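Consider the following input, taken from an annotated entry for Undecaprenyl-phosphate glucose phosphotransferase (Candidatus Nitronauta litoralis).
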Amino acid sequence: MFKFNPEMVRNHSGAFVEFSRVTDGLLIILCLWYSCLHYGGVWTQEHMILSMVGAGFFTLAASFNHLYRSWRTSSLFSEIQGICLSWVFACVLITLSVYFFNPDLLFMNTAIFYWFAITTVAFACTRIGIRVALRCLRAFGLNSKTAVILGGTGVGQKIASNLAQTSWMGIRLLGVYDGRFREHGRPLVDGPVPIKGNFDDLIEMAEQGKVDIIYIALPMRAELRIKEMCDRLKNTTSSIYLVPDLSTFDLLHSTWDSLGDLPVVGLIDTPHKGLNILVKRIEDIVISSIILLIISTPLLVIALLVKLTSKGPILFRQTRYGLAGEKFVIWKFRTFKTNEDDASFSQVNKNDDRVTAIGNILRRYSLDELPQFINVLQGRMSIVGPRPHPIPLDEEHRKIVDRYMHRQKVLPGITGWAQVNGYRGLTDSLDKMEKRVEFDLDYINNWSLAFDLKIIFLSIFKGFTGINAH
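Applying the prediction step yields:
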């Protein structure tokens, strides 16, 4: 009897990827050695320890950024982007560590800063070199794989289309095979690849050792057929992958998991669990601490202006829904002439007479949001995430906007993917709210450390200003 084992359902990493874990660490150590030799004078035991700590920080960031997976299925640009962003994150942790434990090493030795720059260039060059070498090997038929698709379904045609568009992966498609094959190889569904044969033809090819990879793209209801094909392929050396058709579901960060010896597919889930929580929390604490140090003086100036220009408290506090729908108190600089409570909420419109003169400026450039970095340090918010709405707005839209509450599968943020795409401030129409939710769910589905850093970078230029800010 066929029995699932959770070890059967796991991420596949090629030999080159496993090798890169070691070479990346060695590259970081060698780059600091080179920097010390040319810019810092002497290579000391402190530098050796620092380089190993840096390698550890980078490996941690790279792992959570999903860099250590098969290069066969990722582009060169995404690889370089991910590795550089992971190194930037590691550099921040290195700088903070040195600052707290040995500040003299940081300020009296320029080799460390040269190390940061040289390592970035070295990472990019090595990745480009490896890709070029692999491409040359695959051009001669080396380090390449042959693949077939079992099932002329829409999913099967989608697999074929993806393989055709990513020939650099080194996976050569031999054809699509379906039990309903007709003469002349006419396609059974609209798609780029015709059906080349039936299941018996595929089995014969696999038994002859002509097929490295078989993608099973049969409908989920065809359980018996899938089981039959797995049994018939037992005496082959082909790697077999099941590609379930989940397109009929509204997925949110769908992942594989296991429950005992049972494989489980998460349809609606959060990306921030397990070690990802640690990465997200470190990111929030490190970046928030740096920002609060930088803006400490502007915070005092704004607080003084708020107090001197209108009556009332400096800070505005309001209850909102956070992670998993739990309530928390959000902090903002007060921009209203009167401090509204939760029950009297109404959205701020353009030329709203409730807003103070200084409040208009603060809201225009999102400066009223700066106290929320304290919420981030408290663990109630994140720097990046869906913006938390007033509770009455949540209660109104959860009933009319599809999947609205899925936004609360992650911590709310000071800035987010919706905000850098222009959906910030007033949501005076259902269409605007639906677009905001669409971008928020896209962020949750594709979360990574690199994505967070990208949003933070974009927010500097267009996330905190815009025509919708009131």
